[in-house]
Amino acid sequence: MFHRYLDISLFICLSVAFVGVENKLEFLPAPEYVNLSWTSEFDVKVTWKAPRDLDPRCKVNYTYDTAQNCSTADIGSHKTNNLHFNESITTEHGICFRLRTVPAAQTCDKFKSKPVDIIVPPHKALVEDFKCNYSCMKAFTCTWTPVSNLPDLKMYYRYRSSPHLFPCSEYQYDELVKTGCKLSGSFQEVIDVFFLINGTQDGKTVRNTFQRSPNDLVKLKPPKPDVKQDGIKLHFEWTDNNDCSECLKYQYTYKKCNSTYLSEETDKRQVELEYDFACQYKFRVKSIYSSICGEGDSVWSEELIFGEDRDPKGFSLVAFIVIPVTLSLCLILALVLFRRHRHIILPTIPEPALFFKDMFGNKDLADVKSVGVQNLYVPIEEVVESKITLEPEPSQLLNL
Ligand SMILES: *[C@@H]1O[C@H](CO)[C@@H](O)[C@H](O)[C@H]1NC(C)=O
Ligand SMILES: *[C@@H]1O[C@H](CO)[C@@H](O)[C@H](O)[C@H]1NC(C)=O
Ligand SMILES: *[C@@H]1O[C@H](CO)[C@@H](O)[C@H](O)[C@H]1NC(C)=O
Ligand SMILES: *[C@@H]1O[C@H](CO)[C@@H](O)[C@H](O)[C@H]1NC(C)=O
Ligand SMILES: *[C@@H]1O[C@H](CO)[C@@H](O)[C@H](O)[C@H]1NC(C)=O
Ligand SMILES: *[C@@H]1O[C@H](CO)[C@@H](O)[C@H](O)[C@H]1NC(C)=O
Ligand SMILES: *[C@@H]1O[C@H](CO)[C@@H](O)[C@H](O)[C@H]1NC(C)=O
């Protein structure tokens, strides 16, 4: 009996609480007569009317978001108490505007309205693969592939912040068909550039619009690495193909056996390493903008591979056995050769005693000199007069 009473009172309590919450959980009515109209090639104006059945005591504002997909456009990034807004948009992808009525602070105890979605579908492609690059922060070039045949195709561009539209002044062609444009003007610190490509098809103007951000398109080519071995040194060097070398720094990385090294930014275009013969080197380098010129970098260069990973044990065999043995053999060979050719390498020096004997003999100074300069001692023969006889011959003696 008591239990049942408790159940009923709990039920009543919960119901009251629920009714209380439901009273507060009232949504504001959504904006009405929502209308989107184009005011230029890139500008839309969205207008609406305040909801009719709005509690007059309730003050409201409106929020809207812009996104490619309505489901991601729901944070109320813009708030206004006007009944319109303007936006600059392009139609490469679809656009969704999501609009809601929201309570103005403190005046209204209701929740934001259900959304009204305004969808701008993506354009039908006249060109595909619309790509731009901002090479070296100098040349801003865009390219595309035509899909429709538009003999009078033209390209225009403008900065997001300004309504002035510039015609392309330097087209790129592929067999008389326009496939690109080199833009003129400065794009440093420009956030967005809008592009219009239009032409006539079946007597009607058709158009595609695109939006690109130069800062996301800074492109640098990677350097070309090269390596030279110089004894126990490796020289990695690279050449740069970008035409803004005054703006560039480099960063390199190499893998040596299993360890990886990443350099700081450097101005140099070469690096010298101690060559570890047991290791393979895998080298890469990239170009980076120095901060005075902008931001951005190239992709890593292709990998330059030098040497081979050798089995460390095999290598120590080489280092501790083969090299000393080879050196010993060389030494022995050198000694043998030395002995054999000693008379050339270390000539015999004349014995001083003999030398002086010659000097004071009946030799003139020139000869002495030549003995000193030339290295071989040639003993000088004594002059012996073999025919001189001091005593008469025995026959003569007999005749006397
Ligand atoms: C939308 O706005 C345009 C231009 O302001 C106007 O011509 C058109 O009638 C409006 N459409 C609706 C349904 O309100
Ligand atoms: C929008 O996002 C939802 C969920 O993330 C996805 O299912 C839907 O396909 C998307 N629509 C478009 C047009 O991208
Ligand atoms: C919201 O509405 C209130 C009352 O209408 C107004 O004073 C306030 O400026 C609005 N807020 C914004 C962000 O427009
Ligand atoms: C929106 O654009 C229209 C037409 O370009 C202009 O008259 C109006 O002042 C703009 N409003 C705002 C709030 O920028
Ligand atoms: C393309 O757009 C420009 C700028 O709005 C315009 O002057 C030109 O007439 C358009 N071309 C065609 C074929 O409609
Ligand atoms: C930038 O685009 C131009 C034109 O397509 C091309 O010649 C150049 O190689 C590109 N630069 C880079 C770094 O991709
Ligand atoms: C290098 O890595 C390989 C496989 O990842 C391993 O087998 C080898 O022992 C490593 N060498 C060194 C010197 O760490």
From TrEMBL:
Stretches assigned to the Type I cytokine receptor cytokine-binding domain: 129-210
Entry's localization field: Membrane
Entry's Gene Ontology molecular function annotations: cytokine receptor activity
Top-rank taxon, per record: Eukaryota
Position of the signal peptide: 1-17
Protein name in UniProt: Interleukin-13 receptor subunit alpha-1
Species assigned in the record: Chanos chanos (Milkfish)
One Pfam family it belongs to: IL6Ra-bind
Species classification: Eukaryota, Metazoa, Chordata, Craniata, Vertebrata
Residue stretches in coiled coil: none
